[in-house]
Amino acid sequence: MQVTDGELMTRVREGDRQAFALLVERHKGPLVGYLSRLAGDRERAEDLAQEAFVRLFQAAGGYREEGRLTPYLFRIATNLLRSEERRRRRWQALRPLLSRNGNGGPPVAQERLLQGELHRRLRHELAHLPLHFRVPLVLFEVEDWTQADIARLLGCREGTVKSRIHRGRQRLRQALAPYLHGEDHAPRPTA
């Protein structure tokens, strides 16, 4: 029989580092996948996940088992991403854009190129959605969370989650519409 997250956290509170390693192993893949979709960058996601696990370890003494370790861990990670993005926005406001990079590459089959471009644009637009839309949208559409679980994670009502998912989808459709309808031939400037 598999040891529960709650039992592992109890052992972590008692100083069992192996129990914590089991928690990391159990939750690392889903957490990194979630953060990769939010951040649009796997390496950044791995760094954020590592920091989330450090914070979880540090908070082990005050953790109360209610059968909700996964939402608790995901909330820590989401808050880390939020804080990082706030810092990044402040920094960007203080300094002008230093360089413009082009995205050139070797030619490939047209359909594969178009599909790759669509995926790139989708990742880009998703990564630039405000977090209050991006988090519920990724959790619902990609991570297959229920709206109730997302509401618990975010500390809001299910109706709010439903509305944010809907509005996030609308913003993505609106952002991708010019590209999908052949009207967008140049990369959009980022804010």
What does this structure look like?
There is one protein chain. With 191 residues, the chain is mainly α. Helices cover 71% and strands 0% of the residues. It is built from eight helices and no strands. It has helices spanning 5-13, 17-39, 42-58, 69-94, 110-127, 131-141, 147-154, 158-180. The longest helix has 26 residues, at 69-94. It is elongated, with a radius of gyration of 19 Å. Mean pLDDT is 82; it is low at 93-108 and 184-191.
Mean pLDDT: 82
Low-confidence stretches: 93-108, 184-191
Radius of gyration: 19 Å
In sequence order, what are the helices and strands, one letter per element?
Answer: HHHHHHHH
What distance lies between the first and last C-alpha atoms, to the nearest angstrom?
50 Å
Strand content: under 5%
Number of helices: 8
In total, how many beta strands?
0
Helix proportion of residues, in percent? over 70%
Structural class assignment = mainly alpha
The description of the largest β-sheet is:
none
- Overall geometric form: elongated
